[in-house]
Amino acid sequence: MYTAKMSSFKNRIFQLRNQPGTSRTGQRWSPEEDARLREEISNGHQTQNEIALAHQRTAGAIRSRLTDFAVEKIKNEEGFTLEDASKLFGVSVENIERKCNKMQADRTRTKTTSEKSDGEKERERETEMKEALSRIESKLDTLLLRLGNGKERVEANALYSVY
């Protein structure tokens, strides 16, 4: 399933890159392009769709980048609210909240091994071992079902008890 989703995603990126209006899809934003986007938003003369065409990106990419700017502004300027950021960058409060929540979840999930306590490391190893054992047991159960009754089943059970 994951492979199919990635393949579909890569195909979509390929299609977008081969269209004149979205040829920069998926590429990194340069500092110059960021500055240009900030200027275009502050001028307020263009819609996000018009800006997307000028940058050869999708409107979704523009909204996403503007949301990043909004989160950065809230994080770096004390007293700057979600509503302020929403008005300044033309993105919804919900998008900004979603991005903030995702960033918080990512920080929690990517705790480095050195930051984890010995107990946390031990629990992770135990969980990994249980998952591996469960996969092995499932494969052995399948094998036993295929073998059926008789001598092969006894040998397979003997093998099973070793692990």
Verbal overview:
- With 163 residues, this protein is mainly alpha-helical.
- It folds into two domains: 7-110, no CATH class; 114-162.
- 75% of the residues lie in helices and 0% in strands.
- The chain has eight helices and no strands.
- It has helices at 2-17, 31-43, 48-55, 59-76, 82-89, 93-109, 118-147, 151-162.
- Helix 4 (59-76) runs antiparallel to helix 5 (82-89) and helix 7 runs antiparallel to helix 8 (151-162).
- The longest helix is centred in the last third of the chain and has 30 residues, at 118-147.
- The radius of gyration is 26 Å and the shape is flat.
- The model has no long low-confidence stretch (mean pLDDT 82).
Helix content: over 70%
Total number of distinct structural domains: 2
Q: What are the low-pLDDT stretches, counting only 5+ consecutive residues below 50? A: none
Categorize the overall geometry.
flat
What about the largest sheet?
none
Q: Strand percentage, roughly?
A: under 5%
Q: What structural class do the secondary elements suggest? A: mainly alpha
Continuous helix count: 8
The run of helices and strands is: HHHHHHHH
Count of extended strands: 0
Roughly what is the average pLDDT, rounded to an integer? 82
Distance between the termini: 31 Å
